[in-house]
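go over whats below:
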Amino acid sequence: MKVITTALMCLLLAAVWPRDVDSKSMHVPSSRCCFRFLKKIPPQKLIQCYREISSSCSHPAVVFRLKKGQESCALNTTTWVQKYLKKVKPC
C-alpha cells in the first residue's frame, strides 16, 4: 500500500512541478535597463513614441523610438525629456 501511495505522490509532483518551475524561471521582464544615454537632444519630429523603463533600474529613464527604427535611452530627470514626454505619445 505504501508503494502505491508513494508512486502516486511522485506522479502528482511530476505533473505539477514543471509548470510551476517554468513559469518562474522563464520570466523575462518586458523592459531593460539603460546604461548609456543620449548626449545630444534629437529633434522632436524624429521621435515616434516613448516607453518608460522599469523602476527597478538604477537610472530613471525612458526609451525613445526614432522614426528610423532606432531606440535611444534618455534620462527622465532632464528638462528636455520632461517636455518631450508631454508632447510625444507612449508606444
